Amino acid sequence: MAVNYGSKRLATGAHYGLRDWLAQRVTACLMAIFTVILLAQVIFSKGPISYDKWAGIFSGQCMKFLTFVVIIALLYHAWIGIRDIWMDYIKPVSVRLSLQVLSIVWLVGCAGWAVQVLWRL
What is the total count of domains within the chain? Predict the structure, then answer.
């Protein structure tokens, strides 16, 4: 008679816990700082906010770099949240894996679109 010691290994989660919690907080702080900087530039600009003024805010290399970093932070923040939702609520491994792959494709597409918009200015 075979005795099974230990628990059956499940394909749910990899115990990312503290790392993901910290990553979500760091990315949220980056996005909050970016929002404050952007609001300050909009509030303290003179005259009406037109396309030229808006494009001027994002035309500098420093602002483009900061925006790019925030886009990457936003995508990583979203990926952690979406992945956790799929891991918590979708039990069939094949469905969960498919949803995760579709989520990655969607997020990479959003990143490409955001970079294209950013560098088109």
Answer: 1
Please give the average per-residue pLDDT across 12-38, as a whole number: 88
121 touches 55 (CB < 8 A):
yes
Residue 35 confidence (pLDDT) above 90: yes
Whose CA is closest to 96, among 18, 15, 13, 23? Answer: 13
Question: Is 80 within the bounds of a domain?
Answer: yes
> Is residue 95 in some structural domain?
yes
Residue 65 is part of which domain span? 17-120
Taking the mean position of all CA atoms in its chain, how far away is CA 84? 13
Q: Pseudo-torsion of CA 12, 79, 110, 56, nearest 10°?
A: 180
Q: What percent of the chain has pLDDT over 90?
A: 60
